[in-house]
Amino acid sequence: MKGENLNLFLNDFAVDAAINGTTPSGGNLPTLVKVLFDEEYLPLELGAEGRALTATGKTEDLKAIRHKTTIAIEGKNYSVVGVHPIMDGKFTELELKECG
């Protein structure tokens, strides 16, 4: 829907995320954005289990994200390993890998 306020949804369900090195001026200060953080356990091949880490936010807030960008959520650091626009492109899902 044109002109919809995506923040209304994020205000209720999102957490704060600090994205490193994405300031408009190219500086190193983190940019703070709201994301939906999901830490889901998934069955993998051969009966093993794995963790699927994703963060979903407004595409306009995540437009500077690239592979290997570091993002801090709830006190942990993650590296972006995938960037996927969702349906109409207003939201983007980030695949994450925990930095260790």
In DSSP terms (H or I, runs of 4 or more residues), the helix count works out at 2
First-to-last CA distance? 40 Å
Q: Structural class of the secondary structure composition? A: mainly beta
Strand content: over 45%
Instruction: Summarize the amount of helix as a percent range.
Output: 10-25%
Structural features, described:
- The model has no long low-confidence stretch (mean pLDDT about 85).
- A hairpin with a 2-residue loop joins β4 (about 70-75) and β5.
- This protein is mainly beta and about 100 residues long.
- It is built from 2 helices and 6 strands; from the N terminus they run αβββαβββ.
- The protein has helices spanning about 5-15, 60, and strands spanning about 15-20, 30-45, 50-60, 70-75, 75-85, 90-100.
- About 20% of the residues are buried.
Write a brief structural summary.
This protein is mostly beta strands.
Topology overview:
Elements: H1 7-13, E1 15-19, E2 31-43, E3 49-58, H2 59-62, E4 70-73, E5 76-86, E6 91-98
Antiparallel strand pairs: 1-2, 1-4, 2-3, 3-6, 4-5, 5-6
Q: Which terms summarize this structure?
A:
single chain; 100 residues; 2 helices; six-stranded antiparallel β-barrel
